[in-house]
Fold this protein.
Amino acid sequence: MRLEALGWCITGAGAFLEESLEVASVLSQDMKVSFFVSKAGEEVLEMYGYMDRLYDIVSGGYLDEVLLASDSGYSFPKTGRFMTGRYDALVVSPATSNTVGKMANGISDTIVTNCFSHATKTGVYTVVVPVEHDSSSSLTPYYISRDRCVRCSECDALEVCPSSAIRGYEIDYNRCIGCGRCVEVCPEDAVLRYEVDVLERRVDRENIDRVSDMDGVCVLGSPNEIIGLFG
């Protein structure tokens, strides 16, 4: 399937986030890509240090841009582009269980679920990549290990943090931009990421199956599978 313009939604999931950006970057070489980012998605992109990378994928022109929920008001008017045929397809990747649950039950109260609602109502081909499609693992944002941190009198990690996000044993994720400078300078290797095993819940499987059964919707197990559809 060859496309000219693609809408891409990002929700607040760390799992599949890096892979989603890699695939979107590849596709952007041959088509315009508009990113629709939920408020939670904005926070997670900052936490993992991917926000600048997201903007690097697009030119900033019409249909090749980043549209943030925080800038979109309550009605998310630009999601109406799906109703007027501006996009050839929609991708929601990564899709949190919360977003998939809303999709499965016809709830459209976020920028992402509005995109999904408009796209499916008007026959726009839609791809969803749920993070809970199967049992998997997810990498956390940076955190400070209380077992390793010795509370240095002069904290190198705090000194190099460009956003003043380190406070004692805690990282303020509303400030953290995921740059990783703290990791490089901590002498105790106390700033870490943790891989979490995530089990699939029955309710998540039921919601995924309901979305998968919708007309014009394709559910995939990995962002890398998107290349086979549109690449």
User: Anything to note?
Assistant: The two ends are 8 Å apart (CA to CA). The chain has nine helices and twelve strands.
